[in-house]
Amino acid sequence: MSIKLNIQPEIKAALEQGKAVVALESTLITHGFPFPANIKVARDIEKAVRDEGALPATIAILKGEVTVGLTDEQLEYLASAKNVRKCSRRDFSIAIARKEDGATTVAGTMIVAAWVGIPVFATGGIGGVHRGHPFDESADLMELTRTPVAVVCAGAKAILDLPLTLEVLETRGVPIIGYQTDELPAFYSRSSGLPIDLRVNQPHEVAEIIYAHQQTELTSGILITVPVPIEDEWPTAEAQLVIDQALANAEAQHIIGKAVTPYLLGRVSELSGARSQRANISLLLNNARVAARIALALEKMN
Ligand code: PSU
Ligand code: MN
Questions:
Q1: Domain residue ranges of the chain, discontinuous segments joined by +
Q2: I need a labelling partner for 138 at 20 to 30 A (CA). Which of 35, 152, 156, 265 fits?
Q3: Nearest ligand, CA of residue 41?
Q4: What is the pLDDT of residues 110-163, one digit of tens each?
Q5: Residue 158 in contact with residue 186, Cβ under 8 Å?
């Protein structure tokens, strides 16, 4: 690969020394939360990683340059910029050639993390199969089949069809680990009733699985699913009523393609009086902490 990657010096040094680094995505900043709440969320996630002793590497495309590790000014710029392209696999070449600003999705962030050798990535919830639209499948699921990065998340977003999403991940060969849980978390709430492949309770157990995965040279990613902290959980029954309403609104307004997920998250937040945001922020910070502990355990093994 011969495009120029802009890696922040502190992160470059850490990667060369095999130190713990956690990749972070940027679509949740530009499309997941409104300004200016998004800046605070982005900073707090980075701080959560640092407080655990690892280095955060937020990934984005700035004026066509793939950037690993944003300065605080760059973070603020991205959070308030207009017309940021939501970048999944298919968007990279366009954003780079056109010197655009781009926010990387889970898929986009996995791609860059693999390029620079960051094995652990923290986010909120991955994309998946949309309800009532089984052919609308997030590019995140495809990326999880082809890019070996461990994604720490609270499962797939609750606006999705979780049983179908799980089926697709199974078919595509993506191991699903439950971190201190026996079932797949449902993003805003802790349980979905759906099974996972293995429950683990400690960061080093996850690190051992990531290490084994690296040895096998299997190409798939790994999902590490972590339930939202209990005190901020938005109970499933309550959340589903709001999600159903938001889904009906999206249908009525003919929202399609990459606009669907940002629309639904925004609408759920409006309808819930920010109840959903509380859970979303809480799970993001928690996932960042867990990812940092896993990255540190991996650093010890290497
Ligand atoms: N997690 C959050 N908020 C978000 C996202 C994840 O808490 O906004 C983003 C991720 O970047 C994910 C994207 O990749 O939503 C999914 O979009 P789509 O369904 O269009 O693939
Ligand atoms: Mn889609």
A1: 5-301
A2: 35
A3: 1
A4: 999 999 999 999 999 999 999 999 999 999 999 999 999 999 999 999 999 999
A5: yes
